[in-house]
Design brief:
Among the domains are: about 60 residues, no CATH class; about 35 residues, 2-Layer Sandwich (Wheat Germ Agglutinin (Isolectin 2), domain 1). Strands 1-2-3 form a three-stranded antiparallel β-sheet. The two termini are about 30 Å apart. Helices cover about 25% and strands about 25% of the residues. With about 150 residues, the protein is of the alpha+beta class.
Length: about 150
């Protein structure tokens, strides 16, 4: 399901969209919430621990702002259509949510078309190691090994 879309603007906020009604709400911390935290943890001098304690007991209206917002991108463009898939003609990876880009007549993923945030070194075939496979019902965590 297409339940999460991340766009990094360097802010501590999230926008929630009801895709049926197309209503959207942005939730963010109150601007002075860090300073107000000390009032809820008066015996704590360390800011991290004061905030940790305060955020658990502060009333929601003192902790967060909730603002109804209008989307500048259509809901259809954000969530796309289910089951629509394509393959990148350069790297071969599957592209979902109609995020393919056509460049010079080639259907490409965004990474191949525009570049991405990483460069590949080499492919690793990862698999469960033999002990983990033979103990699949064991309660221990399976370990991952690379050849």
């Amino acid at each position: 399901h297409r339940t999460l879309r991340v766009e990094d603007y360097g802010k501590i906020a999230a926008t929630f969209i009801d895709v049926k009604s197309e209503q959207a709400y942005r939730i963010a911390p109150q601007l002075d919430v860090r300073e107000r935290a000390y009032a809820y943890a008066p015996g704590e001098s360390r800011h991290y621990f004061a905030q940790l304690q305060a955020y658990q007991v502060m009333p929601a209206h003192e902790l967060l702002t909730v603002q109804q917002v209008d989307l500048t991108t259509s809901v259809a463009a954000i969530v796309s259509r289910p089951i629509v898939r394509a393959s990148c003609e350069r790297c071969g990876e599957e592209i979902i949510n109609e995020r393919e880009i056509v460049v010079a007549g080639q259907l490409l993923c965004k990474w191949c078309a525009e570049g991405g945030y990483y460069r590949s070194h080499r492919s690793l075939d990862c698999h469960l190691n033999r002990d983990a496979r033979s103990n699949a019902n064991d309660t221990r965590t399976n370990s991952i090994a690379a050849d």
